[in-house]
Amino acid sequence: MASEGNGMSDERIGTALIKQVIEEELKDVPSEDVPPLTPLAVQLKTEQEEKVVNQLGIMIRIVGDKVKDDKEFQDAIDGMACGPGSKWDRFKKVTDKVFEHGITWENIAVLFYVAGKLALKMVEAHLPQSVRDVLMWTVDFFRNNLLGWIRDHGGWINSFSDLAVASVQHVSSFSSQSYGLIIIFISGLALGSFITWRFTK
């Protein structure tokens, strides 16, 4: 059952999540360099949706950090601002790279993370108007290519366990003590989300 059955909207959550990831990436940029993103994104309607978006945002940052060391992704992100072809074509190449092995919760998280990095790269390249393009393209890609898959896989609420596993795999190079603390933290997040979700039904 997708999140829509419990009063939460997978579409609203995904759209708000994309916006949040981009805003988080741009938080240290002077506000005059960033165009307003509010009119382009749907507002969350419940406190439960806000909690899900915030928890997913944390997990996306952890999962997305795996991309930082991937030279192909970094080249694609760097090429968005000044590469050959239209920015849309370059964005499409990035999405093709992210989903070259199919749609998974982890790949969706990586796309949202990369969208944030692309938005930052546009501001750094003095193309702030392109931040809105990145947001709109990511939201459109989400709605047209990922939303159906998300609903078919039980909605965002079912992403927590897979994203928690991906997060733990990312931090596996930490010491065993740090590893244990991170497992406890992520397990607590997932369990708390599940309990909250069940009580709101």
Q: What would you say about this model in short?
A:
The protein is an all-alpha fold. It has a single domain (3-199), classed as Apoptosis Regulator Bcl-x (Orthogonal Bundle), CATH 1.10.437.10. The chain has helices at residues 10-25, 47-64, 71-82, 87-98, 105-124, 129-152, 159-170, 176-199.
Task: Give structural notes.
This protein is mainly α and 201 residues long. The protein has one domain (3-199): Orthogonal Bundle (Apoptosis Regulator Bcl-x), CATH 1.10.437. The protein has helices at 10-25, 47-64, 71-82, 87-98, 105-124, 129-152, 159-170, 176-199. The relative contact order is 0.17. Mean pLDDT is 79; it is low at 171-177.
